[in-house]
Known about the structure:
The chain is of the alpha/beta class and 253 residues long.
Amino acid sequence: xxxxxxxxxxxxxxxxxxxxxxxxxxxxxxxxxxxxxxxxxxxxxxxxxxxxxxxxxxxxxxxxxxxxxxxxxxxxxxxxxxxxxxxxxxxxxxxxxxxxxxxxxxxxxxxxxxxxxxxxxxxxxxxxxxxxxxxxxxxxxxxxxxxxxxxxxxxxxxxxxxxxxxxxxxxxxxxxxxxxxxxxxxxxxxxxxxxxxxxxxxxxxxxxxxxxxxxxxxxxxxxxxxxxxxxxxxxxxxxxxxxxxxxxxxxxx
Length: 253
């Protein structure tokens, strides 16, 4: 038996990176997965690979309310219900705060923060109607500390923790648990958009991260699985850092 047998989980940003690995793992654990993204070719290919009856792809721009409504309709048409959500979609922009155009700051908020809000607001009634379930929001290591050069991103990830805690309080009586994963450096197309040599990336994090390496998206997927299953049945409203020890502090040795 799989840990998610009988569950239907919608995963945003599911066409690649962490979302793709979450989709693969959740499907392997018995869930039917709704792959939501704006990368149509990759999303459709992944749905085809996972198989009809196991996965369906829906186009979803998480910052658009109408897209959420359409995605829910498509998911229910395919699988009859939704009882899980992984708010994984996000974007990252590098810029000093004083050099960040307002348009860029608003774009990051629209995807990361408003996208998460719309996911919770849209899916919570569906999850309640299904008898309860889980919501996992993707925050960040930077939701718990600061990092120069990613001010817009860090601001939205702090906001996601606030949304997570409030949603956990408001939805507990509806049998919906809400938690957040807070990844540190993870090797995904978002964090390495220019395709820098993995060896060079590894060398950088060998000096920054106590465990001496960059994280893997499948490692984050395993944490999302834990928070989506019965192994975490008494946990809600919490951030879970997965960063190789980066947030623990500074080592001089």
